[in-house]
Amino acid sequence: xxxxxxxxxxxxxxxxxxxxxxxxxxxxxxxxxxxxxxxxxxxxxxxxxxxxxxxxxxxxxxxxxxxxxxxxxxxxxxxxxxxxxxxxxxxxx
Length: 93
Known about the structure:
With 93 residues, the chain is mainly beta. It has no helices and four strands. It has strands at 33-41, 60-64, 73-77, 84-92. The chain is elongated.
């Protein structure tokens, strides 16, 4: 039994993982933003439970655009024992 001849096809078989190219341009922040680095730090809390010393405590830090925290907030949970954060803030000029 014979049928029509199929069209020629091709495929790629990559035998090695090639590294991607380097980043060629910075996309953010753009020239309309001012970048400020802010350090936020606090004193370590204490816990009456002796199995939770300050170096084990995790802090939940909340940031908001308004002082009443009624709008959208951003939450960062620290790693155990960390009592400061360095934030990069972007401001429109």
